[in-house]
Write a structure and sequence with these properties.
The chain contains three helices and seven strands. A hairpin with a 4-residue loop joins β2 (about 65-75) and β3 (about 80-90). By secondary structure, it is α+β, with helices and mostly antiparallel strands. The strands form two sheets. A five-stranded antiparallel sheet has the order 1-2-3-4-5, with helices on both faces. A two-stranded antiparallel sheet has the order 6-7. About 35% of the residues lie in helices and about 25% in strands. Mean pLDDT is about 85; it is low at about 185-199.
Length: about 200
């Protein structure tokens, strides 16, 4: 009986390992496509290229190191469009990961949620709530002056019954802006800088 169970366990483990290995490639390709589509969506340009990818690490108010990925973009004529920035904060239900598009001046072009664990029907509304024409519209705003929910004296309407998610979302946007500004474009190249001015 022990030998039979051991044999079944080994065979099952081998099958699972094979299936995992066989699906790694397609899953990676799907993630790459989703990211490419997301960059086009937040930059509001269909025909663009990612000219450079930078990683910026900055400490938050509590001293925790956060990592941001900045995708510098150019249009078909090789003109700088700005950048799409990946930013993650802690929401009500867990990590809230967004992708925000900024033009060269730092104005918000668009955003999309990449990952979240917010409550369906409440915090999950962040994917639409802050879009152009919606109640919490942030499109076109520049986070040079931090975006804050109106409940905290700011200018952005929070999602109804989801102030925690709204604060987390706006923090992710504000942090993305800071990371974007910490990655200046020098002519044709970009340099990643950390807080404190060190490269």
């Amino acid at each position: 009986m022990v030998l039979v169970l051991t044999g079944v366990a080994v065979i099952t483990g081998c099958i699972l390992a094979y299936v995992n290995h066989a699906t790694e490639g397609p899953i990676a390709l799907q993630k790459e496509k989703a990211l490419a589509d997301g960059i086009k969506a937040v930059m509001c340009v269909e025909n663009l290229t990612v000219s450079k990818t930078d990683t910026v690490r900055q400490n938050d108010a509590k001293g925790k190191e956060l990592t941001y990925i900045i995708y510098q973009t150019k249009d078909a004529q090789k003109k700088d469009l700005g950048a799409a920035v990946e930013s993650t904060t802690s929401g009500f239900g867990g990590d809230l990961k967004i992708l925000v598009g900024f033009d060269a001046e730092g104005n918000i072009l668009g955003y999309t949620l990449l990952e979240h664990a917010e409550t369906p029907g409440l915090g999950a509304k962040a994917d639409k709530w802050f879009q152009k024409g919606e109640k919490g519209d942030i499109i076109g705003k520049n986070p040079k002056e931090e975006l804050v929910v109106s409940k905290d004296g700011g200018q952005v309407d929070a999602i109804t019954a989801s102030t925690i998610t709204s604060r987390a979302f706006l923090l992710a946007v504000n942090n993305a802006y800071k990371a974007f500004k910490a990655t200046p474009i020098d002519g044709e190249t970009t340099a990643t800088k950390k807080e404190g001015g060190k490269e």
